[in-house]
Specification:
The chain is α+β, with helices and mostly antiparallel strands and 202 residues long. It has one domain: Holliday junction resolvase RusA (60s Ribosomal Protein L30, Chain: A). Helices cover 41% and strands 18% of the residues. It is built from six helices and five strands, in the order ββααβααββαα. Strands 1, 2, 3, 4 and 5 form a five-stranded mixed beta sheet that branches. The protein is globular, with a radius of gyration of 17 Å.
C-alpha cells in the first residue's frame, strides 16, 4: 500500500534497519485489555529499542523537510496479518521524533508512506527508507528557516534529555549495529533485543 502523491519526487533515502519483529496491533490491544499500564510499557519499551537503532545508524540526522517513508516488513513467517504488522509504524515514527530525526510525525512532516511484506525465517527485521520529499511548491527561504529551527530544537533536546536506559554505545554502521543487537539478544536468551516483548508473550 502506498500513499505517495504521483507528483512527489523522493531524494536519495536514508536507511534504517531494525532487527527482529516489532509488536503489532493485536499485541498492543491485548496489552491494553490486560492493563493500560502494560500497554504504555509495551509502547515505551518498543520505542526505546527502536531509538537505539536510530542512534546507532542515523547519528546526528535531523530532517526538517517532509519525508516519504518506505517500510519493508520482513517476518519469520506469514502468521500475522499485514495490517497487524504495519501498526508498528506508529512506534517507529514516534521514536524518530524522540531521537530528533523528525520534528513531528504530522502531515507537514510525513508526506506519505508505503508498505511491502516479505519473509526471512532466520533474520526477521524491518527495513525503512526515509526519503526527503521534493514537493517543489515549498518556499525555499521558509524551508531553510524551518530547518534551522528544527536543528536548534533537536540539539536542545539532545543536551537536556536522558537517553533510554539501554547499554549500546559507540556502534558505527548498519552491519555492526545489527551484529551487536543480535549478539546481546542471544546472550540474554531472547530472539529479539532486550526490552521488546516477544510476539505472543503478552
Amino acid at each position: 500500500m502506498s500513499t505517495r502523491p504521483q507528483e512527489t519526487k523522493i531524494r536519495k533515502p536514508y536507511i534504517l534497519i531494525i532487527p527482529g519483529q516489532l509488536p503489532g496491533l493485536n499485541e498492543y490491544i491485548e496489552a491494553e485489555r490486560a492493563n493500560k499500564y502494560k500497554a504504555a510499557k509495551l509502547k515505551e519499551n518498543t520505542e526505546s529499542y527502536i531509538f537505539w537503532s536510530i542512534k546507532s545508524q542515523l547519528k546526528g540526522l535531523c530532517i526538517a523537510y517532509p519525508v516519504f517513508m518506505s517500510y519493508n516488513w520482513i517476518e519469520p513467517n506469514k502468521r500475522r496479518d499485514k495490517d497487524n504488522i504495519s501498526f508498528a509504524r506508529k512506534f517507529v515514527q514516534d521514536a524518530l521524533v524522540k531521537a530528533g530525526v523528525l520534528k513531528n510525525d504530522g502531515w507537514n512532516q510525513i508526506d506519505g508512506f508505503e508498505d511491502s511484506f516479505n519473509v526471512d525465517k532466520l533474520n526477521p527485521r524491518v527495513e525503512i527508507e526515509i526519503g526527503e520529499a521534493d514537493i517543489g511548491k515549498r518556499d525555499k527561504t521558509e524551508t531553510k528557516k524551518e530547518a534551522s529551527k528544527h536543528l536548534a530544537s533537536a540539539e536542545k533536546r539532545k543536551a537536556s534529555s536522558v537517553l533510554p536506559s539501554q547499554t549500546i554505545t559507540n556502534v558505527d554502521g548498519n552491519n555492526k549495529s545489527k551484529r551487536v543487537l543480535e549478539s546481546e539478544a542471544q546472550d540474554s536468551g531472547r530472539d529479539s533485543f532486550e526490552g521488546v516483548p516477544e510476539i505472543g508473550e503478552i
